[in-house]
Amino acid sequence: MKEKISDKTINRLTLYHCILNDFIESNINTITSVQIANLLKIDDSQVRKDISLLQNSGKSRVGYCVADLKKAIETTLGFAHPKNAFIVGAGNLGLALAKYDNFLNYGLNVLALFDVDPLKVGVTINKKEVYHISKLPELAKQMGVQMVLLTVPRSVAQKTADFLVNSNIKYIWNFSPSVLDVPKGVEVWNENLMGNFLHFSYKISN
Amino acid sequence: MKEKISDKTINRLTLYHCILNDFIESNINTITSVQIANLLKIDDSQVRKDISLLQNSGKSRVGYCVADLKKAIETTLGFAHPKNAFIVGAGNLGLALAKYDNFLNYGLNVLALFDVDPLKVGVTINKKEVYHISKLPELAKQMGVQMVLLTVPRSVAQKTADFLVNSNIKYIWNFSPSVLDVPKGVEVWNENLMGNFLHFSYKISN
Fold first, then answer.
1. B 141-200 residues with CB below 8 A of A?
2. How far does the CA of residue A143 sit from the closest CA of chain B (Å)?
3. Angle at B126 between CA B125 and CA B128, to 5 degrees
4. Binding site annotation covers A11?
5. What are the pLDDT tens digits along chain A (206 aa)?
6. Which one of A44, B57, B82, B148 is at 20 to 30 Å from A35 when CA atoms are compared?
């Protein structure tokens, strides 16, 4: 049976993954838990404990094999099963996310964007077309998309969420600073930027 | 003595704050813990426990006074002491963050943006000017800024962080998908978008 991995561990593993990408780009083949720990300013015993949760972590006498460890993280966290998604809201944040190629490396495959602005509809961003929002229900069905990254302004966030729910969207990654009221069976992940800032701010003032 | 509030509680309190803003806009004066709990799909005893950490939470016989509860969250989480900051990187994400007026409500005061692109330098975004990065050390000193939101591409993230550290920046809110190597005395908060996605993705697949 698969062991449940905690949120904090998932978070650390993705940071290790970033570091491994940097090492690969620099053509370094081996990495130690101490190197990872120093970059993240955490304890190296924590790093070893996290890595012990992975299968085939590439441990050797001199450290870990960078490529193997990277693959082990990807397999464990399920990057191998990409999820298709739409971005709803083609403002700056929506465009930034559409350009964020890193997503695909992590199993998030953004297929298209949606907006109401006629100036945006028809534009192509990073090979993804911007469609009018009215096309969403049909395209979601055709493309089998159940996940949306919601980047609309707060003032229309709930109205848009209602529309998405009616279009059979099941998973909403909510980047708008608004708490959405959705029925059972729909999952919302609040990308609470202000919450994150306040952690940071609280941490540095205390 | 001030009680230490956990990261998860801070996160929930900021979501309650979002809900309170919505209630204020709808001219509703009273809110119950059950209403908050239902919107967030959490237990109402958790909501009451979190609110019990606040001073002057505005509790009455029929619920909480919306305005008082909002103020209590702001006071407890220190929104009242704004922090000045710069955005480094005037790409889509930098622009999205510059336009995000909500920040100021939470005590984050973005004063200016910086970039190397001559086409961006001199432009004004949401009343904030984009300066050439070479002006940063001088302006940081003049304006007393110690915090930066880093939104540059991954390929230049470390080089830019080194420059910021040399410019006496002490706090880096890192939006680039890169782990930064900084000396002691500099705090980095990794806005690990992929980590957040993987929590969500892991949660919905298990």
1. 154, 171, 173, 177-179, 181, 187, 189-200
2. 19
3. 65
4. no
5. 356 788 789 889 989 998 998 899 889 999 999 999 999 989 999 999 999 999 888 888 889 999 999 999 988 887 767 789 999 999 988 998 898 877 777 788 999 999 999 999 999 999 999 999 999 999 999 999 999 999 998 889 999 999 999 999 999 999 988 899 999 999 998 887 777 777 777 666 65
6. B148
